């Protein structure tokens, strides 16, 4: 009996650590996206549902990609509503336009050879615990790509400034 209680506690501790790590990674993704595109209109420590809902229409993803790689997403379907803090309610677009933005973003991700996710990973109805992980992985890979690009640019500038 004692072993099963210990195993249960160990499983609970492991699950708790995984949840904390997932929350930390979402925080990093939100913080980085906000430095690129401005306030997302969600908490700094969003739930998976808040995080996915914020990215669902693809606007933030496309705009972030174009900040890092100008022109990587040549067509971004913008909302017709006036600019407000980005939230699910202020980003009403028809479903096919959500898909078009997400698809265009994912094409750009593939061209950069970064880890991608499925467009269905952004569907609210399909959201299960842990399903945002691929989306977070993609965003953090894009962040790493940006960092490498900046590092290479700095190295090139330093090389050109050598005596």
Automatic annotation (TrEMBL):
Pfam families: CH. GO terms for cellular component: actin cytoskeleton. CDD domains: CH_AtKIN14-like. InterPro entries: Calponin-like (IPR050606), CH_dom (IPR001715), CH_dom_sf (IPR036872). GO terms for molecular function: actin filament binding. Residues 23-147 form the Calponin-homology (CH) domain. GO terms for biological process: actin filament organization. This is Kinesin-like protein KIN-14L isoform X2. It comes from Prunus yedoensis var. nudiflora.
């Amino acid at each position: 009996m004692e072993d099963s209680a210990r195993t249960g506690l160990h499983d609970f501790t492991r699950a708790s650590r995984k949840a904390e790590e997932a929350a930390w990674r979402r925080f990093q993704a939100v913080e980085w996206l906000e430095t690129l595109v401005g306030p997302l209109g969600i908490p700094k420590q969003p739930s998976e549902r808040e995080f996915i809902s914020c990215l669902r229409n693809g606007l933030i993803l496309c705009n972030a990609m174009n900040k890092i790689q100008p022109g990587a997403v040549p067509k971004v379907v913008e909302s017709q509503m006036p600019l407000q803090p980005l939230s699910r309610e202020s980003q009403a677009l028809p479903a096919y336009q959500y898909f078009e933005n997400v698809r265009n973003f994912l094409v750009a991700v593939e061209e950069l050879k970064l880890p991608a996710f499925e467009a269905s990973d952004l569907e609210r109805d399909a959201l299960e615990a842990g399903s945002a992980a691929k989306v977070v992985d993609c965003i953090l890979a894009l962040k790493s790509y940006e960092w490498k690009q900046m590092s290479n640019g700095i190295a090139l500038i330093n090389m050109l400034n050598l005596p």
